[in-house]
Specification:
This protein has about 250 residues and is α/β, with parallel strands linked by helices. The protein has one domain: Rossmann fold (3-Layer(aba) Sandwich), CATH 3.40.50. Helix content is about 45%, strand content about 20%. Strand 4 (about 45-50), helix 2 and strand 5 form a beta-alpha-beta unit. Helix 1 packs across helix 8 (about 220-235), helix 3 (about 75-80) runs parallel beside helix 4 (about 110-130) and helix 4 (about 110-130) runs parallel beside helix 5. The N and C termini lie far apart (about 40 Å).
Length: about 250
């Protein structure tokens, strides 16, 4: 509800009666998107690997149901979608962050895994989710902006980052009228991001971002959740990449 000139204006939830599946929904961006989607009237279904954490997350957001499995287990992923009792509208896929290793220190298997895993995961989710999705629904993939620069420290992450936008666009054409979009985030203050730093290093990074980002604050999971829900509600958006990094790529 908002007010204009003292008069109350009631706004209908934009996703009322729809269902959102959060792949990786027990923490961070996935959990915050579930919370945001609930405020817009959706039912939410959460998945994750840690059953206890998933159970608590589902209780926290009032989720309809939850399923604990490893999303990289293709048979388990297929079984999850096959067993959904009703059609769904939107799917958000989050996953592990990139691995930063200099190229010459990587094995062939590591290269194939780092470049192929995100594409393969997106493809497997698309393949299994599409038959259960209503037309006009949304598949949202997660990428990043940090890997767009080239450096020895980033290694193969830059190649993996570059592959996701054209993959998303091609998938949008194949799945139409289901929509497919890519969210490219910079540093987001989540437990996953924290795992890359020591305690002191994490706070130093936050301080640096507060000083240098044009928005003068650190991007949080609620910011990404707001973008994700907008991409679900705006039915004209498909095949595109949406940056959300507070201007990080322009000042780093």
């Amino acid at each position: 509800m908002t007010t204009t000139g003292g008069a109350a204006i009631h706004r209908e939830p934009e996703l009322l009666g729809q269902t959102v599946v959060l792949i990786g929904g027990s923490a961070g961006i996935g959990l915050e998107t579930a919370r945001r989607a609930r405020t817009e009237g959706t039912e939410v279904v959460l998945t994750g690997r840690n059953a206890e954490r998933l159970k608590q997350a589902t209780l926290d957001v009032g989720g309809r149901s939850a399923a604990a499995f490893d999303v990289n287990d293709a048979p388990a992923l297929k079984r999850f979608f096959d067993e959904l009792p009703e059609l769904i509208d939107h799917v958000l896929v989050t996953g592990p962050g990139p691995t930063y290793v200099p190229l010459l220190e990587m094995t062939g298997d590591q290269v194939r895994r780092e470049v192929g895993d995100h594409l393969e995961l997106g493809l497997e989710v698309a393949r299994n989710a599409a038959p259960k999705m209503r037309l006009g629904g949304t598949l949202l993939l997660m990428g990043g902006t940090g890997g767009r620069k080239i450096s020895r420290e980033l290694g193969i992450a830059s190649a993996a980052t570059a592959a996701l936008p054209p993959f998303t666009a091609a998938l949008a054409l194949e799945l139409a009228p289901i929509r497919v979009n890519l969210i490219a985030a910079g540093f987001v203050d989540t437990p996953l991001s924290a795992s890359y730093f020591s305690a002191g290093g994490l706070e130093a990074r936050r301080d640096e971002l507060r000083r240098t980002l044009p928005i003068r604050r650190v991007v949080g999971p609620a910011d990404v959740a707001a973008l994700a829900v907008h991409l679900m509600t705006n039915t004209a958006l498909t095949g595109a990449t949406y940056d959300i990094d507070g201007g990080q790529q322009f000042v780093s």
